[in-house]
Amino acid sequence: MGDATGSRNSSAATASRATSRWSLQGMTALVTGGTRGIGHAVVEELAGLGASVHTCSRKEDELAECLKKWASLGFRVTGSVCDVSVREQRDRLIREVSSTFDGKLNILVNNAGTNVRKPTVEFSAEEFSLIMTTNLESAYHLCQLAHPLLKASGAGSIVFVSSIAGVVAINTGSIYAATKGAINQITKNLACEWAKDNIRINSVAPWYIKTSLVEHLLQDEVFLQRIVDRTPMKRVGEPEEVSSLVAYLCLPAASYITGQIISVDGGMTVNGGLYTSG
């Protein structure tokens, strides 16, 4: 009888450990730019796995609409109006996150970004500054600000939403590509520097994904065909196909993965020309 009870208890404990490895229950997360596109999908993915999520947007109405929808779905999501390109607003955002989550943060997803597509010789100084500040400086600064909160949680994870533009040359503009290349390198440096603080850092690098940032481009049938021709899987990606990887990298199940840049690209970056049109 005792052996049977012990076996059941052991099985229950094993099942509980297995479940907890694939759950974010009890964890806290900050996702920047969470009201549309990949960021929106990430918020829903993390919240669906049990995390309490705070997100931000420059647009108050858009944020309020999303928060209302998430509440109706039973997700624990709060939000702030914040333009991550403004240093003072980043400071305020992290203060709000610290207050909301009692000084501890498990997950930071640096998702917010922007782009201006032009030939290199046509970029203005203002455009250079906008892209650099929004894509690179904001993410770097938020990591600095969030570090004490992530360390205090005892198990922190940072995920950058980068781009394959930081891995290979594509026609997205040299400044955008430079910011993503820098993000990929910061991923490696911080992974080594902050491992002692039990903080893991990884980057997810998408190819073309159906989001508002590129929807105007994908409406051009000639442009879309060029993208599809370069992609072995013969299609562009969906936001949920990126958010699932982001969520995985935040799970306890991914506890030995850090410093990695993982492409979500339908095989585009490994295609040496074997897979083209047809």
UniProtKB/TrEMBL annotation:
Keyword Electron transport: no
Pfam family, one: adh_short_C2
GO molecular function list: oxidoreductase activity
UniProt-listed InterPro entries: NAD(P)-bd_dom_sf, Sc_DH/Rdtase_CS, SDR_fam, TR
Keywords assigned by UniProt, alphabetized: NADP, Oxidoreductase
NCBIfam families with a match to the protein in the record: PRK07231.1
Name this protein carries in UniProt: Tropinone reductase
